[in-house]
Every structure is written in structure tokens, then in C-alpha cells.
Fold:
Amino acid sequence: MAFTGLDDKKLLRAFLEEAEELLEKLNENLLELEKDSGNPDSINEVFRLTHSLKSESALLGFNHLSELAHRLEDVFDRIRGENLTLSRPLMDAIFSASDLIHEIISRISAGQIETQIDTRAVLGELKQLAGLELPGPSQQPLEAEAAVSAAPGSAELTLQPFHRLQISEALERGEKLFLLSLKVAEEAEIKYPRAYLVFNNLELITNVIQTVPNMTVPQDDRLYERIVILLSSDLPEDQILATCAVDLIEEPELEVLNRSRIDELMRQGDRVEQTAIRTSRPTGSARIESASVRVGTEKLNEIWQLVGELTIYKAQLTQLHDRLSRRRENESIKGEVERASDSLERITAEMQQAIMGTRMVPIAILFNKFPRLVRDLSRKLGKNVELEIQGKDTEIDRTIVEVLSDPLTHIIRNSLDHGLEDPEERKKANKPEVGRISVSAQQQGGKIVIEVADDGRGLDVAKIRKKAGIDSDISDEEAVQNIFSPGFSTKEDVTDLSGRGVGMDVVATRIREDLKGEVEVRSVTGGGTMIRILLPLTLTILHSLVISCAGYYYAIPVQDIKETVKVTEQNISIEGENEYYDYEGQKVALLRLDSVLLGPSAEPSSRGQETNGVVVAQRRGTACLLVDELVEEEDLVIKPISDLLNHRRLFSGVTVLGDGRIIFILDTARIIEIIESGGFDGV
Amino acid sequence: MAFRVLLADDLYFMRMVQKEVLESKGFQIVGEASTGTEAVTMYQELRPDIVVLDITMPEMNGLEAMKRIFALDPEAKILICSAIGQQSLIVDAINAGIKDFIVKPFKPERLLSAINKALKE
Structure:
């Protein structure tokens, strides 16, 4: 249909400009396919381009053009569905069709009518070679597949312990479990935001437990053709289904899960856990999943690992070059090695950056959903709340964001639901009627720190003490940490707990076990609650200072170091059992690293002489570490370290240097923490 | 009574397309804004039932205008008009509370279906 009588010229000009761009890209990708007919990126790109061209030309009433584009779209839909291979004759026909599209567009732009060109021959050829005669052959298999996978629905869901705890909690609250499945219409050009619209609607009124595909971090757009969502709610079904009443959402089906279905789901979670990663997938979804980011991330990790190794060899080459340059002969070879070494250094640095970039996403993709969540939930609860968000640009590993979404949402919900008082109560307590919740993220040293704070009533310490059976000699500050203890909130009378106890043990398990992070709570009765999450930057390359101590090598992340200093007897003072270093007029704890790492029996090294000190700073304090030698600065690929090798958790990771030396990376935050709590005896 | 619609798009022909489609189904176009600033001012004056807001506009873009409209009226019903390639902006807008979005170039039935569903809520 054409919009006659409108400002057609403007519309036409816009269309032609865009069509030209589309055609250029189409050509590029077809040429690519001529070289490599199986290239999935090009196949998808051509599909997308012809699809756009089809829709736009149809909007303006260029039916011949639209039909040609449509046929090409069909052909590529079949190719990407692996129902058709790109043969030589087919490729020729595709090129003819593309040439014809070119021709039609140039005629349109010259003011001629598109129907002057005969498209029948080319269309016929395409139909014959691609077997398109059957009515809608490209769609049938897709729909059949969807139907098959729709039946078992939940089979696609894999439940983690976190999800199962959420399920038990929901059932304890008396909510029902639902499985909602829906389709995003094929016509929707971009599917993820459309699916997200429903997801967002659902999140506001129900408790979404798990979605397939992941909704928090966008994956390949085509994965969002079919969505399965597991949720719990006490709302009637029609109200839940109403969240699907947006354009281009089709066939929403809501299934109430009865006891046996729930048991089945829970058992399935066990199975998945036991068999670890499934190697084969149901045939129906395999095709789509093969293009998913999940697999992509695995590949990324592989590349990451390789870059790590490259870094190691780069270091080795630099060392060789240093050794070589100390000799007098072979000047020309030295120059060549130097150039090669420089290039390698530059390339590895760029590769590191690039790959790091693909892994890192701004935490905004997580934080941006909170304003809406807070706005709607506070309205539902009749509370006035102001939300403050800081540090949206903080970059964080993509996989961490995916796992972090659930726990963080849970914390904010708790804050709103249990932490903040209603306006009446706030008035009585002489507090501003509008409650505040602040969410912030920042990178601190080698960690990401996320804080969620509210100015609500704080935790009920007395109840927590009673519930957990805590002795009175334990401070309030320590007592409240019990909300993170396993099983704490799944005991009876959970909802009785005023404050934020609900489900925090589940949150903590997720953060501690899945993310290797830390979580702690501060609470002031009547003043508010703050939850701080510390997340490691795993899988990262860390710029570190390598030091030696009692014959072994260790590394200290450069970002933790304030300064390296020369320490002499004059700037050491002794108080009781402890030694202090006079650092710019400030007394900081002095730690002889050898006695910590090798035990107090180690020979006190170089007492009385000038020694090297490394001043490290963390949130909890500053310390000066005495070491034997400052060796070199290196980019180290951090690998996780097993707890068996990590007594007292003094190390944050381990790495292998270019020459094969194994180096432990010192966890300065932990070391300072132990110093502050007087944990190193007689140091 | 006819639903009152505010259109905001910097391109005249886009507004014309939308206007024709909507008026043919009995909607009343109460205002046409060509910048984000205009959209906010007109929203305040006209209090339409729904706003169709383009993302890319001069002076103040659609997302900023959306935020200001929500600040004026948290219950405002807003549809965003976007182009392919603006996925992350759409997700931001969904988080901010828009009812639906339309991807340009769109067919008339898309606009009608989205607007009807958003108003029915």
C-alpha cells in the first residue's frame, strides 16, 4: 500500500538513501558468500538485509521490489535453517536477483516506474532452485519445531540451586508457580526488546525465577522467537497473562505447575547439576543455540586463554632480548629481536584490550531496570521512594552480570518491601516521608564494589540473635551477618522478620559460590541498611609488581600499591608486639612478608639494613610489606587458586611467568584485614 | 470519545503518515511536536491520552523528552518510535516505563495495534 497524497518525495528520498546502503551491504555479503558459502554471519546478514528491504519497499508500495526481496529472504531463511545449501547455480540466481534489485532502485530514483522491469524469469529461477513452490516451506519446519519444544517447555529451563531455593521460598509464601511461554511474531524486526517488554511487565507484578533465553543480557536476537518464563505469583491467571498484551506477542500460554510438575522441575535441576554441562542438545533448539552468545562466550574464553599464553611468551621474549642486549656481538640480530619484541608487545596489548572489551559490559544494563522496578513496586506498596544510582558506567564481566541480576533485584525488592517504612511510620520516626534507596557500583582495586543502601528501619538485631541463637558476647555488627547463613531465611516465620532478612541466604550463596565474591551487611536500627557486594575481576590480566621474598616470587597488583619505599631502622617503631613504619608522618603497620608466608620461624631477613618496602592501601587500611627484592612489573594472567594451596586465603590467584616460574598473587585486602584484626601474631 | 494523541517526530512526512493512519481509525491528533522540547511543553498543555515519540529528534531527543514527561506525569502512556539498531535505547525506555515501541519503517497496522493495546490497559 502506498501513502499517496503525503509528502511522498521526502519519504522516497529517505527510502532511496537507505536502500542504497542496504544494497551495498548486500553486495559485500554476497561476495563473501561466494568465497565461503557456509559463512553464518553473511547468511544472517543477507537475511536481515533482504528482510529490511522487503518491509521498506512494501511500505512505499513498490511491490515488484518487495516481492524480489521477499523471495531472497525466503531463500536465506531456508539456508540459515539448513534446509538448503548454497549451490553454484543458486548463487548465480541470487546474484541475478540482486542485480535486478539494483536496476529497479536506480530506475525508481530516476523517476521511472518499477513495473517496467520484468522480474518473472528471475523469480521463477529462484523458486525452482530453492524449492520455494510449496506454500510457505520456510516457515513450516520452524513452527513444527516450536510446537515440539513447546510441549515439554520446562525441558529448556535449567535450574540452578538459586532458582530452586527461590521456588521453595515462593511455595512457602503460598504463591503458585507458573510456566509462561510465548512467541515473538516473526514480523517483529527486533525481537529482544519486544520480549523484554513482557519480561519487564512481569517483573513488576510477579516474581520471575528463570527465563530462557536470558533476558538480562541480550543474546543473539533470533533466540528470542520463543520465550519460556518460570515465575511465581499469587495473582489470578488473567492478570499475569495481561502482561503479554503488547503488540507482536503471540500465543501466550500460562501453565500452573502442580506438585508433580514442580517435583519434576526440581529433579531435573539435580540431574543437570550432576551431569554438569550437557554435550548434546535436543535437535530442535540446537540450531538456534549454536549461534548463541553462551557458546560464543566459551569461545571467547578460549581466545582469552590463548592471549594469556601470548602474554607469557611476550614476557619471555622481552627477557631474552634483555639478556641478548647485554652481549656485544650480533648487533643486527639484536635490532631485529627488539623490533619483533616491540611489535609483539603492541599487538598483545591491543588484543588484550579488544578481548577484554568483548567480555566487559557497563553495569548500566543491569542498573537501568531498577528505576522502573522501584517506581512500580513502591506505588504498589504505597511507599514514597527516591532511587539514586551511581557508577552506571562501571564495567563488569558479562558473565558476572548475568549471574548478578537475580540476587541484586532480590536485595532491592527486600529493601523496598521490608527495609523502608510506610510514610506514616516514617513521619512518626521524624524521618522525611520519602525514603531513599541508593545503588552504586565502582571499581576498587581488583574488585567491583556494589552497594545497595536504604534509610529504612534497619535490621531487627534482637530477632536475628534469637533466631540464630547467638551469644551476647558477639557484637551486633557480627550478629547481623547471620542473615547470610545458609538456611537462615527458609526457616519458619520468615516474613515476621522486619528488616531485610528475607532470602538473603540465597543471595549470599549465589554471590559467594557462583561469583566468588563477598557480601556483608551494615545496619543501624532505625537508620537503615546497607548491603555491600564485593566481586572479583576474575579471568583478568592484572598489571602486577613481582617481588621476591625468602627465595620465592610473589606478585602484588600495581593498583593496590601506593608506593615502593626503602625501609631502614630509623623509620620503624615498635609498640608491644607490633612494628610500624613511618609513612609520610603516618604510622602504618609493618609486615615482614617472610614471617607471614613461611611462618615466624623463618630467619628474619636483613634486619638492621636498608630493605625494600611496598606500601599497599585498601579500604580497611594501609600497610607496608617488607620484601627482599623488587623484581619487575608484568602483566599477569590470573588463574584461580585452589583452597588447598591457599591457607588463610592470602592469595587471590596464581600465574605462570614466561620462564616457567609459578607466582602467587598476594591478596592485599585480605592481608590488611588480618593485620587490622590482629590476626598475625607477633608480627 | 475519541482518544487524544500527541505525535512527536522531527520529520513532517512521518507525522503525516501517522496522522493519516490514526485519524482514519477515529483517533484525534491534538498536537504535533517536531522536537523533544516541544513534545514536553505540549504534553503539559494538552495532557493527551498517549504520546507517539520518535527517539531521534533535534534539541532534545525522545528519551530525554520521555523522562521529562514521566516526571510531569508518572502515569503517562508513551509509545516510542525507533529504528533497527536502537535496541539498547528501547530497553532503556522500557525500563523507564513506556508501554510499547514501534520499529520504523512500520506498517499502519503495527501503529494501530500497539496504540490500541497500550490504551486498553
Q: What stands out?
A: The first helix of chain A runs from residue 8 to 35. Residues 142-279 of chain A form a domain with the Alpha-Beta Plaits fold (CATH 3.30.70.1110).
